[in-house]
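Form 12-C: Joint structure prediction
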Amino acid sequence: MRGKRKANNMIANYGFRDGSGDWYVTIDTDKCNGCGKCPEVCPAKILEVGPDEIDIFREEPVAFVKHEERKKIRYSCAPCRPGYGAEPAPCVGVCEPKAISHSEGWKILYGHK
Amino acid sequence: MAEEVKTQEFWRWPETNWVNPDIDWKKGKVITAGVDVGSVSTQSVVMVDGELYAYGNTRTGSDSPTSAWTGMNFGLEKTDLKVENIDYCIGTGYGRVNVPMAQQSLTEISCHARGANFMYGPEVRTVMDMGGQDCKAIKTDDRGKVLNFMMNDKCAAGTGRGMEVFADLIRVPVWEIGPRSFQIQKEPPMISSTCVVFAKSEVVNLLESGMPENDIMAGYCSAMAHRIMELLNRLGIKEKFVITGGIAKNEGVVKRLEKELGIKTAERVWYKKEYIDRGYPFDTQLAGAIGAALFGNALLKMGKAKSARKA
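Section 2 - Result
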């Protein structure tokens, strides 16, 4: 017996891996409600809300990282120091359904000062 | 006597095309096509009512529109079907926004998952696409829907183009690297970098040091397998595990990856038994274009797209 199948269960990892670590912004599209708050608070303006380009049958809008930003995410996200310090990154803090997370790259980078 | 050819291009892999002798496209209801313009290779696939009808696999040229046309015309070379007869065409891959005959473009991630589902069957859970200049690890469900994906297109290290450059450097045709990498006494240490530039200088040093060519090939294949493994480990692997793209044809990389992971990749044969029985050729590079053609079929059936057939 298979459990209840969710319509939009997809984890989208935007970013890259290089010699020094993993630099990904992860969006759980099942949780994302397309509210549009994260693009507003992102200081680097790397986020966007629109039609789901991976799951073309999804009806609702979803948050994603802009195409041109995916290869420089390490540097764009760096000022917010995601995963390090008491405060979450603005996009993570504003997301009510907790759909956004960051990989450990930045945490490791800023954790070993 | 003819003058001896001084330069040879060892990276040049043969282009192929094929048409299904069992299908009369004129009797088909819906004809869809997918064109996957990658950074190194371009594939076109035509499907009649969701069955593989024709394909072409070519090298990508200097611009996407020309490459798309070359790929499409090569795919249709052995049939009298024309582009005007196609109901719906979807472009995918690196150059997807520049496919002139396509009505729509889709990202290669969804197309590869869908295509792998068609090629290897609904049991596929993990798809590793080894492209010309990037690699993608995708988790998928029994319908070929993407559940989780991770891409690395920042750097071309350990990808198809890297293997081509290596072939040229070591002066061995690219399809011979896999088999020859096993003709060794014992497994050599891997090339320490998969970066094309660094690996190139390392290989030159190894060649000068007198290391046997086959050992260097083994070392490069190991390095590439190791890099793929790093990406897969982050995503997590579930069987059935398949590799698509050109590197899937290189057993030197695939077998070493299987050894390192402790997981076998699915056999490179059609899921549909009648395809095997009739001897349809299987090409791992077709996944993206097959997926695109299948999406076209689905969109038409759902009424989300309109037929653009002209003749």
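Section 3 - Comments
The longest strand of chain B covers residues 51-59. The mean pLDDT of chain B is 91.
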